[in-house]
Inverse folding.
């Protein structure tokens, strides 16, 4: 039955044998056509990283020597502040000018290419007025430094090996005691005699402290030049017991929390004992 066989063949395949083989394979796009797309994706990723994750900053002065040298490039963590992390004692942080700290400082000029690289985070911006200092005290702390003496936080002496060799803790500008308001930080440069830090701006709003909202993020590593590649950790002196302003209150608070259930339990027990005695028959004499 030739007619039936032909019909069966059409129903099974719906196409003539060899149709698939006759289709020419799709040619991949050339590299030069793909390149603009790849560049666009890379730029978008770079912009997102700069905005939400990590940004590079250049050190413009000597105020953080010897920890940081002029011209160093540091990477700043911008991610953790998005999750509510706040600056901690001992961290090196980048922050926006709180107002008046950089008055009179010249702004370096940049060409179009440099501005574009700054925009996507591949090069520090010269237009952003940012500073970099070390956090010495946080909201609720009391900080002070008398001439000839060390910096003290909540009465605890800081051992500061990061101070520039030959510098004193604060002899050029003693201060305090100062109570740091909640939500703000007290910052100082490691090169104490060459740093216009919190000590020198006490007449401004905030009394020399910086709002946590002004903090861009924590500088966590020196990324350039390669021979200075290093991690920017928190010195051990900021881990000493009792440094926190809450340190002395915490044990008392914990004791109070633990004592309340015990007191309530004993009171309830006495009430039950009194009820049992009241309900029991009186012994006859």
């Amino acid at each position: 039955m030739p007619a039936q066989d032909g019909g069966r063949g059409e129903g099974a395949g719906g196409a003539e044998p060899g149709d698939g083989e006759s289709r020419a394979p799709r040619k991949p796009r050339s590299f030069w056509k793909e390149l603009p797309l790849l560049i666009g994706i890379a730029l978008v990723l770079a912009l997102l990283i700069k905005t939400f994750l990590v940004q590079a900053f250049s050190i413009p002065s000597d105020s953080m020597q010897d920890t940081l040298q002029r011209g160093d490039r540091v990477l700043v963590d911008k991610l953790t502040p998005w999750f509510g992390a706040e600056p901690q004692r001992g961290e090196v942080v980048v922050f926006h000018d709180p107002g008046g700290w950089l008055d009179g400082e010249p702004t370096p000029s940049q060409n179009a290419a440099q501005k574009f690289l700054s925009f996507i985070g591949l090069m520090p911006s010269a237009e952003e007025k940012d500073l970099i200092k070390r956090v010495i005290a946080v909201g609720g702390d009391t900080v002070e430094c008398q001439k000839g003496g060390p910096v003290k936080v909540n009465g605890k002496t800081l051992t500061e090996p990061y101070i520039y060799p030959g510098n004193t803790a604060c002899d050029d500008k003693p201060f305090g005691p100062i109570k740091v308001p909640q939500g703000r930080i007290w910052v100082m440069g490691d090169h104490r005699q060459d740093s216009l830090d919190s000590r020198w701006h006490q007449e401004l709003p905030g009394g020399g402290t910086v709002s946590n909202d002004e903090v861009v993020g924590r500088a966590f590593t020196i990324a350039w030049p390669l021979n200075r590649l290093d991690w920017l950790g928190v010195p051990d002196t900021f881990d000493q017991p009792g440094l926190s302003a809450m340190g002395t209150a915490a044990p008392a608070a914990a004791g109070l929390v633990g004592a309340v259930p015990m007191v309530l339990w004993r009171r309830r027990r006495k009430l039950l004992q009194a009820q049992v005695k009241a309900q029991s028959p009186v012994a006859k004499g």
About this structure: Residues 1-18, 246-263 have pLDDT under 50 and may be disordered. Residues 249-279 form the longest helix (31 residues). DSSP finds five helices and twelve strands in the chain.
